[in-house]
Amino acid sequence: MAASESTAPKSLTAVARRPAHPVLIRNEHNPLLRVIIEAPAGLEIRLSTLSFTLEQSDDPSDIESLTLFATGEKEEFSTTQPAAEPIPSRAMFTFRAAHNLKAGKNVFWLSAKLKTSADLSHRIAAACSSIETTAGQLIPNLSAPGGRQRIGVALRKHQDEGVHTYRIPALATTAKGTVLCVYDMRRRMGRDLQEDIDIGLSRSADTGRTWEPVRVIMDMGKYGGLPEEQNGCSDPGIIVDQQTGEIFCFAVWMNGKPGKHQWNADGSEPGFEIGKSAQFLMVRSMDDGRTWSQPENLTRKLKRAEWWLLAPSPQQGIQLPDGTLVMPVQGRGEQGVPFATLMTSHGHGANWTIGAPAFSGGNECQAAQLGDGSIMLNMRNDHDRFRAVFVTRDLGRTWEPHETNRKTLIEPNCNGSLLRVDYGPPRERKHVLLFANPHSQTSRTHQTIQVSFDDGRTWPESKHLLLDEGRGAGYPSLTRIDADHVGIVYEGSRAHLVFEKLSLEELLKRCRRTRAAPSSWTNSPPGPWRP
User: Out of 7, 31, 383, 412, which could bridge 77 as a Cys pair, Cβ 3.0 to 4.6 Å?
Assistant: First the structure.
């Protein structure tokens, strides 16, 4: 009998589906495959075995162990009921799972635990090769909407370091090639300010393969004699001066105002006074992110007195070819209406200038330099479910809407990430824009990277790369991590903060116009990639 033939009655069927989300190092359980067996009424059928294959995976030895779970009629993944003993990984394997099939839906999940040494460039592809029952053999039909599953890292999870929730990541790469991720450490609960929140940092010196223990780089303690839950810091933004190596991290600090939020009502007020207006803080590092200065309060230097709020955008800033630092920021204007703009420095961070609001009703944003030297600001839009996109040619003094403004890139009202990537030999240099966000207008699902080869005028659907179809908190952040890869951190469905390493070759070959070999790629402005 051929392995592809089923001998069970036609009323007994099976389908398998590979979920579209990464398989994560540090997770005890990673769902690889859901198998649904539909059993007819009136027959007593007993399941004997389920056989699987990992032959289409890059390396089955990336997996430490495999487990089978039964979830009854529920299609959602659950580890409550193991259906067989865990087994070591191998290319082909069988679970003996004596199980009476009920009439209707019987759901099973194959789950994996990865080795800490699993390769981030590898993918895993599980398939159910056969199911043996007392009524005969079944060969399930397979669907895989995301293709093979990528390997990533559960960078931060619930209760890591005793912290309830990790949120709001911003990713950057230092002048020495070290990858830094800053984020909210929401210690007591998942809610935003005002709460006990510090700014944490994860640091990787090997392009995201391993990460050092968390560093707390902003903690206002019990300032003013108030408890820590009334001294929260949130929404970190980060920028690296690639010429000097200095790194700047910004965040918003609230003092007092229990139960309030800086974006609502009088959670932050006009003026500069600590305890009334939320404060704009900065810390800096001169040693590649190992140690950080004490917080410096920039509120009186940057905020206009009539504004209700000025805060960093929780993203990475950029540096222009002439050395100018460009950091996206956000706030609430004279009438309390949200806005987004740029903060720039011509003096390597010694002083900063705030631009004019680009768009009223937008806030969280990220900037990228276009081919003509102008700067695009891509913004979360509170008015509708499309991204707001504006362009400036004078560092934020004046703005004009981009042709895609509020009609092209969809969103569920959530932060997004924009990154320019230069590639090709010096005389034939080209660039693309990468955009990441939850690709939905209804919920924070379908975390996706899009590619534009024409400075953001078009984002072909054929070039979309789905990372995670599940629901998470959504916020992504992209960075160039070496000559051949970009990194992304996002709030995914399988961990609070998920890190993935993506090949530029894969992203760029999605367009036939791209012929560059990986070794010819260079960095985004201001110069060739280093190190």
Answer: 31
